[in-house]
Design brief:
single chain, about 0% strand, 4 helices, mainly alpha, flat
Length: about 90
């Protein structure tokens, strides 16, 4: 998982909590340890974050494959409409 974490008050503990929450909520995984690879400085993280947000701002439309939607319906035991709502909300 790749994360950006620019901002005051966001330390390693906050990032660890976010990763654990994401893994549990979306992948149904419980993890004890978080391993960090290729860490960058806060300044570099902020620069990369700004660049990525600029790319996303240029995106006109995002679509999801039928296979992805079906897979998430099965995994989450959730109707297609709810899966699409979650996916669309996650890209805003």
């Amino acid at each position: 998982m790749e994360m950006w974490h620019p901002g005051d008050g966001i330390d390693k503990g906050v990032v660890d909590d976010c990763v654990r929450t994401f893994l549990k909520k979306f992948l149904d995984l419980n993890v004890e340890g978080i391993e960090y690879k290729d860490m960058v400085s806060p300044e570099e993280a902020l620069k990369q974050y700004v660049e990525e947000m600029e790319r996303w701002d240029q995106c006109k439309e995002i679509s999801f494959s039928d296979e992805l939607i079906q897979s998430l319906e099965d995994k989450w035991k959730t109707p297609k409409e709810k899966v699409l709502e979650i996916l669309n909300r996650s890209t805003k």
